[in-house]
Amino acid sequence: MLQEGAHGKWTVSSSDESTEENSDGEKPSTSSLLDAARGKTSGPQYACSEARKAAHKRKASPLKLSDKSFSTEMPPAGKQRPSQEGLGWCLSSSDEEPEDQKKNAHKETLKEEKCDAPEEHPLNLHKDDELSKNQKPEECNETPSEAQDTWDLLNGGNPFRFFLTKVRGIEQSYNSGALHIKDILSPLFGTLVSSAQFNYCIDVEWLVRQYPQEFRKKPLLLVHGEKRESKAALIAQARPYENISFCQAKLDIAFGTHHTKMMLLLYEEGLRVVIHTSNLIAEDWHQKTQGIWLSPLYPRLPQGTIGSAGESETNFKSDLISYLMAYNSPTLKEWIDLIQDHDLSETRVYLLGSTPGRYQGSDKEKWGHLRLRKLLKEHTSSVAAQESWPVVGQFSSIGSMGVDGSKWLCSEFQDSLVAAGSGVVTLPKCDVPIHLVYPTVNNVRQSLEGYPAGGSLPYSIQTAQKQLWLHSYFHKWSAEVSGRSHAIPHIKTYMRPSPDFQKIAWFLVTSANLSKAAWGALEKNGTQLMIRSYELGVLFLPSAFGLDKGYFQVRGKMLSESNDSATYFPVPYDLPPEQYGSKDQPWIWNIPYTDAPDTHGNMWVPS
Question: So where's the catalytic machinery, residue-wise (predicted)?
Fold first, then answer.
């Protein structure tokens, strides 16, 4: 059936029922795993989404502008609703609610066929075609930083301990102060005894290679949410490694995911916690914008210490233990005991997590957006006219928001984002601007990866047409401040800036996309909070950094030095965000783009 809308014409299935609306959209797509078992190796060797498989296919078989042989017919996607001209589109997510799920779209499994992207405008990146097509991203000289550089990072002037990942293909100065996973696992950070990796998508073979040779046989626990075929495939990946064990996160509520991304690193010298936004696959550490919070090195407490010893003013230790206890897993008891035995008092961030469940009473305020609301009410101070400050949400996917903003986004979720101390007046919600940052089609087309970068933005045409009202909230991705305008964001951040965007009342980096599954949704007349997924992030509040004015200044350039670095927060993208223009459209993964080539000279046809 031929359809036409703001994205042009495309062919879709004329099926009477939407397969998207009647599928387990959070279930990983395992067809690539079955192919591998049959000897076919064109796709990734671990569970991934349909969007990711499409990106793999386009990487393996690129379609040039001059190639007239390709078809713009879409893969069967069920009945599509026609769009309304001029109303634009919204975003979708693997975190969507049950009625709007597609195929587990958070799995990031793109294979990068080019490595040495020239450090120039990405529209010239098609010159990379001369490189070996068999080269993998992890083979592109991704080596740890020089020892002195790493030491400076650990002990230098970064009071927030907030970092970005290195990006290949940008001006090298913008990677100063950034980290690769090999840096995090470097012996300079500590002499590793054992580690635990909490994540969503895991390439075991690649992960093992990121550890230094001397640490590769140390005990490694993988905490995951895979089931059935995907779980079997993950275990099979780890079969050659006797040091690897598993903890399966319980996902008892349908369509939930284990989306948390955290490392627990036990050293001879102490303990370190790393909370970040990257999947444990090569592509997520190559040419994407990602965020990392790296804890201090926590020393072991004197033997016999009991009670609340080693707790921080932010209650980070007890909150981390509560989060781990929510897994209800004997496997994690060892790590809970280890955390209890260490001094986490130097932590200056608040932990903000989500765990699956239906919570009532005071338990509601332990998780999700109600946890954010509670922290903001208790630990933010009054700032003149702060009630009119806007809120910003930046993410790589979005769930089903309902027929209008009143269903969740502009009601309970916004109530949490605008929460503040008792001295702040609350304006009617409609008077608080909401800026949602999500990449446009041109952001993807002009990115370092080209169109395949859209595999990490799993927004489908089916969901887009159900939430047209979101169009007015959208803003482009731009990150000149960190040199990452062409590195598609997989980082997720939320903040409350001043109207002139020179100050922020708080900043959150998290695994949580914009969805009810991640943040929770109130039920039973507001008496119950239901959360489907595991998520984890850290919240930066001025009061925890000794600032009594109630805000951070926004650093003008992320790498710039300032007289008081604890005052200036390094927001990793440009403020104020620029609203979509009349010709801008958000990236939708499952329709073709054949009007203009990407930075590698290729087109996008997902079938």
Answer: 259 (nucleophile), 490 (proton donor/acceptor)
